[in-house]
Design brief:
mainly alpha, Four Helix Bundle (Hemerythrin (Met), subunit A), two-stranded antiparallel ribbon, 2 strands, 72% helix
Length: 188
C-alpha cells in the first residue's frame, strides 16, 4: 500500500508537469516563411519573458545599480533595443545608421558610464515602449524577407540567420543579468 501511495503521488506530480511541457513548442509564426517564423517565435518568446519579469518595476527599481560599474535594468532594455535596431537596419534595410540614428542609439548600444547617466529617471514602460517600437519594425521587415534571404551570406563568415541568432543569444545573456540585478534590489 505504501508503494501505491508513492506511485500515485509521483503520477500526480509528474503528469501535470508533462502536460505543461507539451505546450511549449517552437513553431513558425504566421505571416513569415518557416525559418524566419521560427526565429520570430523565439525572439518574441524571450522578449515576453524579459518583459514579464520587469514590467511592474518601480522607478527606483528600474534605476537601481548594483555598484558603480553596473548598468540599470532600464539601461539594459535600451541596450537590447539598440542592438536590435542595429541589426534591423543593417540586415533588413541593408544600410547603416544615419547620423541621427547613431546619435540616438549609440549610448544604449555601448552601456557603461554614459548610459548610467542617460538612462535614469524614466519608468520601465518608457524603455519597454522603445523596445516594442523597434520590435514592431523588425517584425514588419521580416515579413518582406524569405528563407533564402535568411540563409544567404552577409559576408563570407556570417549569414542573416546567424546575425538574428546573435540578437536572440544577446537577449538571453542580458535576461540573466536583469534577473541578477532584480534579485539584488533592496526589499522595502
Amino acid at each position: 500500500m505504501h508503494l501505491f501511495k508513492k506511485l500515485c503521488c509521483l503520477l500526480l506530480f509528474y503528469c501535470p508537469l508533462s502536460f505543461l511541457q507539451a505546450q511549449y513548442k517552437i513553431q513558425p509564426r504566421e505571416g513569415y516563411t518557416p525559418q524566419i517564423g521560427i526565429m520570430v517565435d523565439m525572439l518574441e518568446e524571450i522578449k515576453d519573458q524579459i518583459t514579464g519579469e520587469i514590467q511592474d518595476l518601480t522607478q527606483e527599481q528600474t534605476d537601481f545599480l548594483l555598484d558603480d560599474q553596473a548598468n540599470s535594468i532600464g539601461a539594459m532594455i535600451m541596450h537590447l533595443a539598440a542592438t536590435e535596431a542595429y541589426f534591423q537596419v543593417e540586415s533588413l534595410e541593408g544600410r547603416t545608421w544615419t547620423e541621427e540614428e547613431a546619435a540616438y542609439w549609440s549610448v544604449g548600444a555601448g552601456l557603461g558610464e554614459t548610459s548610467r547617466e542617460a538612462f535614469k529617471g524614466k519608468p520601465i514602460q518608457h524603455y519597454l515602449d522603445i523596445w516594442n517600437e523597434v520590435r514592431s519594425k523588425t517584425l514588419e521587415g521580416f515579413r518582406e524577407k524569405d528563407d533564402a534571404w535568411f540563409a544567404s551570406d552577409i559576408d563570407e563568415n556570417m549569414n542573416f540567420h546567424w546575425a538574428w541568432f546573435h540578437v536572440l543569444d544577446h537577449s538571453a545573456n542580458h535576461m540573466g543579468q536583469i534577473a541578477l540585478v532584480k534579485k539584488r534590489i533592496p526589499k522595502p
